[in-house]
């Protein structure tokens, strides 16, 4: 569960990124967060992941209060999240299996746990036959699937996809959102941050629209910005 309550964020350079933002993302929900460049989308992601704290207001994520929690608790917050980036951020010298396994080893998983979990996740994203291939041997859509598998492998309660289709053509973009939809149907909460109007309009999902640091619409409406 994610809840922002009257959240303001002012950066040290004086930029007022958020101006009283309120929204709640329930467990098991799927939503798009949309808005133009500079609208505040990236700041919301940074707040949810604990990269920054709110200047004022309350940010609750999976039982943690981001503004008041101790730094020692931050790893526990981040283990409950899976983040997917536009630029994939794969390790070029590691193959698909190793890229996904790395995320498990990073939190102290055993080799036995890795051997059990990684093949399941690769099958879920349709890459079970690509496990020994390196990133530069894959298409852009396949690399993004690896990134999704890596975000999913530690069984997070929330996945945040930050412009996950920004480097993909329309057909591959649709495939990625359909895959995230499938993951959501399996019980994981999904928040997709995007500016792609046509993609959002293709799905009847909640759309949270932000502009100039304020939520301007929130519901099952189409992308209006």
Could you characterize what this model shows?
- This protein is α/β, with parallel strands linked by helices.
- It has two domains: 150 residues, 3-Layer(aba) Sandwich (Rossmann fold); 67 residues, no CATH class.
- It has seven helices and ten strands.
- The strands form two sheets. Strands 6-7-8-3-9-10 form a six-stranded mixed β-sheet, sandwiched between helices.
- Strand 9 and strand 10 form a beta hairpin.
- The radius of gyration is 17 Å and the shape is globular.
| CATH class membership of the largest domain | Alpha Beta
Quick one: biggest sheet?
A: 6 strands, mixed
- CATH architecture assignment of the largest domain: 3-Layer(aba) Sandwich
The unreliable regions are none
* Fourth-tier CATH superfamily name of the largest domain: P-loop containing nucleotide triphosphate hydrolases
* Mean pLDDT score: 92
- The helix content, as a percent range, equals 25-40%
Q: Which structural class is indicated by helix and strand composition?
A: alpha/beta
Number of domains: 2
- The backbone outline, from C-alpha atoms, is globular
Give the total of beta strands. 10
Through-space gap between termini: 26 Å
Describe the secondary structure blueprint for this structure.
Blueprint: E1 2-10, E2 16-25, E3 30-34, H1 41-48, E4 56-61, E5 64-65, H2 74-79, E6 81-84, H3 96-105, H4 111-124, H5 140-152, E7 158-162, H6 170-185, E8 189-194, H7 197-201, E9 206-211, E10 214-219
Parallel strand pairs: 3-8, 3-9, 6-7, 7-8
Antiparallel strand pairs: 1-2, 1-4, 4-5, 9-10
Helix pairs in contact: 3-4, 3-5, 4-5, 5-6
